[in-house]
Design brief:
Elements lengths: L14 E4 L2 E4 L20 E2 L2 E2 L8 H8 L8 E3 L9 H13 L4 E5 L3 H5 L13 E5 L5 H8 L9 H12 L5 E8 L6 H11 L2 E6 L5
Parallel strand pairs: 2-5, 5-6, 6-7, 7-8, 8-9
Antiparallel strand pairs: 1-2, 3-4
Helix pairs in contact: 1-2
Bound molecules: iron/sulfur cluster.
Iron/sulfur cluster (SF4) binds next to loops.
């Protein structure tokens, strides 16, 4: 949805349109502090949309911002925050969208189960059609260098992310691990091999491209 569309409050971009899809911006909190993240470099604008939000929206607010679901090929949870940190609200929105026939993708850091202390992948069944999980490195050391998890998670975030991808295969039709090309030391072919070993798809991403 364009920033000047009447159903959106100008200062709160909760839903934004790109590539025929609708992207949802439901939180500004993250588990990671990625060195390459625009917001940790003082930039909250993505593709012309200012994704800085002043409060975390309710499911009703997000649904109002989306408007007509039928306009979009896909609805994607993907803002400058980690949607699974608001798991209840995210699943509520997904349920409502599913009732309207939407195809839903979740772009995630894959740390939802680690943060919530339980395997959340069964809760995605019937709600999320595609998962795109940021792997970003082929080793824990490089992952920690670029994605900078909270100190409490430094010794297990990378493995937790891979475990999330592995478990999600049983509940989500399409699971893809992604890596950003151009991060120092990251070998894209090794990332692809890591994904193949887990039996999931792989996608190379380019820095600053939303998708
Ligand atoms: S997970 Fe995404 S939004 Fe969060 S810090 Fe990393 S790049 Fe930024």
């Amino acid at each position: 949805m364009k920033a000047d569309t009447p159903s959106l409050a100008a200062e709160q971009v909760l839903a934004y349109e790109l590539h025929g899809n609708c992207y949802l911006n439901i939180t500004y909190h993250c588990t990671l502090r990625c060195a390459f993240c625009p917001k940790f470099n003082g930039v909250w604008e993505v593709q012309g949309y200012n994704l800085r939000i002043r409060h975390e929206p309710s499911a009703d607010e997000v649904m109002a911002a989306i408007g007509d679901v039928a306009r979009y090929q896909e609805i994607v949870f993907c803002g400058l925050g980690e949607s699974t940190l608001r798991l209840e609200v995210m699943l509520d929105i997904a349920d409502r969208l599913k009732q309207q026939g939407a195809r839903i993708r979740l772009n995630t850091d894959g740390l939802g189960s680690l943060v919530h202390g339980r395997d959340i992948t069964p809760e995605l069944a019937g709600r999320i059609d595609a998962l795109s999980i940021s792997m970003n490195a082929h080793t824990r050391e490089l992952y920690n260098q670029h994605c900078r998890p909270h100190p409490d998670y430094l010794d297990r975030a990378y493995e937790a992310m891979l475990d999330f991808a592995q478990r999600a295969k049983a509940h989500v039709p399409a699971v893809t691990l992604t890596a950003l090309d151009g991060l120092e030391g990251v070998d894209i072919d090794a990332c692809r091999a890591q994904a193949e070993a887990l039996g999931v798809q792989f996608r190379r991403r380019v820095l600053d491209e939303v998708g």
